[in-house]
Amino acid sequence: MKTHLVKVFSLTAILFLLTNSFVFGQTQEVKDAELQIKSIINRSGSYFNEGLLALQDKRRPEAGEKFDKSVEEFLYSKVNVQTNQKLSNCYNELVETIYRIEFPTNQKLPEIKKLSDTCGWNISKDTSDSIAKLVLTIPTETNTANNALIASAQNNDSSAIPTQGFDTQKFEPSPLDELAKLELTPEEEQIENNPVAQQQLQYAVVAVANKSLGFSFQVHPMIQQFVNYYQGRGRSTMSTGLYRSGMFMRMARRIFREEGIPENVAWLGQVESAWKPSALSWASASGLWQFIPGTGARFGLRRTAYIDERNGFEGATRASAKYLKFLANRYNGNWELAMAAYNSGEGNVDRAIRRAGVANFWVAYPYLPKETRNYVPNILATILIANNPNQYGFGHVRPAPQLMYDQIRIPASTNLGLIAQASDTTVEYLRYLNPELRTNMTPPEPYIVRVPPGKANEVVAVFRKFSPSNRNTAGINKTAAGETWENISNRTGVSVADLMAANGNAPVPPRGKIIVPINNGVKNIAYTRPTTAVPTLTSTVKVVKALAGDTVSMVAERHGASAAEVAKFNGLLTTSKLSPGREIKIPSN
Q1: Cβ distance 101 to 70 under 8 Å?
Q2: Domain containing residue 32
Q3: pTM for this structure?
Q4: What is the pLDDT of residue 166?
């Protein structure tokens, strides 16, 4: 009996020790997991707070970068976000809040206090309310000293457009602003004692008389005075305009011809914008053809949180031609008056005609705004020079090559980063080709996007592989000759099964493009930044910049890391050549 009791107690002791050992190990594992989750949320909160501060200081691009990093703390973690309720709730609320900050509406404001409570961050209600008001602030671009000129635009533009996006459009000053202040010098005004100017003036008379310019106008000495200006201190302005005209003039001529407008009238674009789609004037006129918001809307140019079609190419050019046709009909085919009205509005020209008593630009000239008095002879001088550059001393200027691109229909709300990967270019170049886009995301509707020439079929082929659910939660990766799904899995950290499923179970295309899904359990949501494929990562990451001539192996060696791990981490090969300044992530344990 004694021996039996000793055995029983010994067995009980062993079971007790084993149980406590298991519980202790399990408790430590749970604690470690909780610490990791807390660390992810805290780091994300720190970046989010920095983003709020940048937003309050009106540093929107920097705010966008901080908000990106806030989201990336989840995406770059090795934790499956959707398997932990706290992490999932915080992540989903963060994504929704950033989306509402970036694209605010009166119906749905960002709920920063709710995010703070969900994630356990310390963000006050005052901060939450101030940000909600801030994101709906409408930037004022009009000059109160010039209300008369743009009153019609303000009346026609009743829908206010709040500040949208973090990577917003970039603008350049319009040449019209300088034109409004231009004063001709006595030397530029001199024609009678200038034999060259008299000869050129006579050439203009002949050109108009024989109708070689495609339309008629009255040859006034002031036109020659602007020719004198361009042959002197305005020479660089004219040279630059003639050069840049090569990029757009063929398109403009075609569209003006289709709309029944004399092709040479398209040179108006040189005076309006110097052929810069990003030109913006003091009067909020924008684009190649300098539409103010109200007039642009009259002729079908949309202006929303996502696009401003005044800055586009074909659509804005056609709207310009239609507006000029409307004005020419209004003034019985008088192109000087039509051009004057294009600049200052029909109301100003109608009043000037009434005061002059005759529908003649040169008679109505004293009653027009100063900018318009300069504007019309400036265009006519530009047309004369452009049609005979040798005659005026500009024969050496060779127009730039026509801006070439393909156009394709892209699904709604697609990030430009994904299109850039598919077309082997950069987001910056896509923004250059699509200046009407106000952010790095296409509108929430299928939209025509310009991509580099010869890339349309490639982009279409890649996008056919995407399903609506994974389009903005995956990236595009180039393949090397002879690669297998196993090779690609090793360097991307995505399983062979997931890679094959994302690519329709097709063979690896040699030197082609494949879809690489994100594999950390984050589901598709409305917010779509960042756009690049994110492999499974280790706990910490160091970001470094490549130097000229670097390969992945060289960067890895310089920072004491495994070349294979760095290549896998960044979705590259160890021999991949890197452009100077490219950011490379270095994993560390």
Answers
A1: no
A2: 28-134
A3: 0.66
A4: 61
